[in-house]
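User: Before I run my own analysis I want an independent prediction to cross-check against. Here's the chain; please return only the structure tokens and, at the end, one sentence I can use as a sanity check.
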Amino acid sequence: MLNLILFGPPGAGKGTQSELLMQHYNLNYISTGEVLRNEIRQGTLLGKKARSIIESGGLVDDEIIVQIIGNFIRGEARADGFLFDGFPRTYVQAYILDGLLTRLQSSLTRIFILDVSDEECTRRLLQRAREQNRADDNEQVIRRRLEEYHKKTLPLLEFYESSGIVTHISGMGTTSDVFDRINTQMEAELSRRRINLILFGFPGSGRATQARLLADELHLSIISTGELLQEERRSGSQTGIELERYLQNGLLVPDEIVIRLIEKKLREEEGNNNGYIFKGYPRTLVQAYILDGLLRKQGSAISAVVNLQVPHLELVRRLDARSRTTARMPYDGSAATIVARLEEHENRTLPVLDYYSEQNQVIHADATGTPVEVFSRLREPVLKALKRLK
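Assistant: Structure tokens:
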């Protein structure tokens, strides 16, 4: 998800550039005033509280603002991110926005500041006042608006400067000139981001095949916990000896061991790829939280989750056919064991899928047909999701 803030003094062209950013990157525009007015129009409980405060001459407090903006963010799943205007306005609201985005497993992508001198802003606003016959936009009023902007914006910039996400953009030149400067910075930002995919699907859905195809297409490393466990088992290490007991007896390997192996693999592959495809992990909600933490330590996050969908009868047919090949898995032995395995997957793994669905990260793909047909169906939505990077 792309989350941007665009700062700029009155007359810097912030409105025009906001429109271009929203169109180009499919962003939802969040204006505190507009979101507040919308709640009031709808007559919601929060809207009624806000109306009462406004009508009594008061200022709507942060407690209400944060709930209203939080509701808006959670309810707008259609866009690829948000462009904030008029929020945050204060140090407190900056922390609030950080918390709201953290709950969505997201964060601010970049803050752009349009740099235009007060003299140029004054010239532009006076010209606009003449063209639109706006007598209220005189030099004295414009000066006060500029002073107010500097007074409110500087403390916020101090809050964000240390985060490394503030970019100053010259606001001089044509509209296209300014947007080209912003877009160059956006493309550089997106190119630096790591790709991290999770491949979901029931046993027999073709995860291994599609993982290889995606890895080749996007230059990603595949992290399969099953393969990591077997490699460690064969290595004869102390951990491998410990694993033997679990694997021989069909016991679940403790997350403590799995985490160490994934961390080791991430270190080995660092710098050799554009990111990772996780196959067979996470299997539980606990593991989903663990994976979030592992990637956060690398300054990264899950980009998208691909869910390969195959009807259950087709899965049984595929697994039964596989049981008669060299690719046979331990649970391919009979129809009863196959069904039990599918039921276990549904009970344990679908809550994890729900977890990522709440964050609008899941791409559902029809996985029936040949591997090439499946890949052709999932390729475009995956590339689209990576372009916007949630």
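Sanity check: The chain has a mean pLDDT of 86.
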